Amino acid sequence: MTTISGAPADTGRPIDVPPAARVPGPRPAEGRLESYRTFAASVLRRCESDPGARSALRSGVRKDLNAVPRMHTVIAHLVPAQASEDSQRAYYAVAAMIAEQARRTDPGGDQAAPAGHDDPDTTTATENGEPRKQTYGVSLGAAFALAVTEGPGRERLMRRSTAESRLNLLCKQSVTGLHRHLPASVRYLRSLDVPVDWGQLLQDLVDWRRYSGRITRRWLQDFYRRCQEMELRNADQADRQDLTAGEEGSPAPAASRAG
Predict the structure, then answer these.
(1) How far apart are CA 37 and CA 18, in angstroms?
(2) 190 in Cβ contact with 152 (< 8 Å)
């Protein structure tokens, strides 16, 4: 039988690819969120220390990338050079919203879930029982739920119907529509002293065109789950109060009255 010179023999075994030739996997999602939070923290510090920079960034609220020349000198160096159009727009939009709300923040930041702090719903267990950190921070839906159930400002709560309407409106938007409507909702949340996870919001904006369905599902699930949890807590508290009041108002035993 004739053998073709130079042709590799088919042994049926997989070819061992050298390590240098292997394609690296995607960057971990938690790394993305961390980088977005670093960006948000940098913008917030700049706004708190430089009124001129804050004014320049605030001028970009609800504006297109081509209409915000004052913002470039403040944050262009913080935006990845190879970022897509959607990503650049998200960076600039979040920076503008941070600047608009910066005067209401306390030193140390305005993040609902700063780096190193896990949201209660973002930690699960692996098969061997070890904790596994998820790749999602505190969503906008959770922030709306907080406005409805707790009202950090302690002056007033957002009506649940208002929160539902605003959240559902955002969930129906295209990229352009979301950029148009989001600042007003964030402004409303911050007026109630509800913290916003700027890093997570930035990630959601970057991913909106491809993953809006997944993101809106998370927003709505977080909103209704937390509202339900608060309703159950309130019901349990009311039951305990009724039980305590009943015990305090119950008649003394007969033996005690006789004594």
Answers:
(1) 36
(2) no
Give me the chain's average pLDDT, please.
78
CB-CB contact of 197 with 146 (8 Å): no
Q: To 5 degrees, how large is the angle CA 107–CA 108–CA 110?
A: 95
- Cα–chain center distance at 82: 24
d(CA 24, CA 17): 13
Residue-wise pLDDT for 111-162, tens only, equals 434 333 344 444 334 444 444 445 578 999 999 999 998 866 555 688 999 9
Choose among 219, 202, 204: nearest CA to 94: 202
Is the pTM for the entire model greater than 0.85?
no
Q: What are phi and psi of 106, to 5 degrees?
A: -95, 155
Rounded-to-10 torsion of CA 21, 22, 27, 30: -140
Please state, in angstroms and rounded to a whole number, the distance separating the CA atoms of residues 171 and 219: 8
pLDDT of residue 248: 63
Burial class (CB in 10 A: 0-12, 13-18, 19+), 184: middle
Instruction: List, in order, residues 6 or more apart from 142 with CB less than 8 Å away.
Output: 112, 119, 222, 223, 226
Q: Are the CB atoms for 167 and 220 separated by under 8 Å?
A: yes
